[in-house]
Amino acid sequence: xxxxxxxxxxxxxxxxxxxxxxxxxxxxxxxxxxxxxxxxxxxxxxxxxxxxxxxxxxxxxxxxxxxxxxxxxxxxxxxxxxxxxxxxxxxxxxxxxxxxxxxxxxxxxxxxxxxxxxxxxxxxxxxxxxxxxxxxxxxxxxxxxxxxxxxxxxxxxxxxxxxxxxxxxxxxxxxxxxxxxxxxxxxxxxxxxxxx
Length: 196
Known about the structure:
Layout: E1 3-6, E2 15-18, E3 22-26, H1 30-41, E4 50-53, E5 57-63, E6 68-73, E7 77-82, H2 86-99, E8 103-109, H3 112-141, H4 151-157, H5 161-184, E9 188-194
Antiparallel strand pairs: 1-2, 2-3, 3-4, 5-6, 5-9, 6-7, 8-9
Helix pairs in contact: 3-4, 3-5
């Protein structure tokens, strides 16, 4: 088996090849691209191409929404095979599924927590900051301010209670909407796990 992908999209690896033993990828300079592609098409991998032997590969991940295939190899190494085109990326993954000896295929959907964790944490941090700033703003308007505050808290509290509520209410709303969207649109990961 020998397959070659030539990617012209910006941000993609220019040439990717699969042979019987390894993944090869290279990004030759524009003036050397044609010669490198001709060599690869003739099953001669040019010097300077990155090579991952199949025997080193532990896992391969293809996640919806990502423009790369993630290859885990060795003890703790990983490489991104960047392919912007969805169909080419899926075709590469499918070819790798057939090429990897002992590969077990599975599909996983992120849990609600895993898919929305960052949005939830950001919303909680903004909510805590909102409570502190709102309390400080209320005390400033009543001339009941005492103690030491951080500059950032005083800056936002100085905007006034109404503006603090509008600003932080908007930020918290954005965080909640983002959380809901991420929970509803949980990504699916296609996995290849190599059993050795």
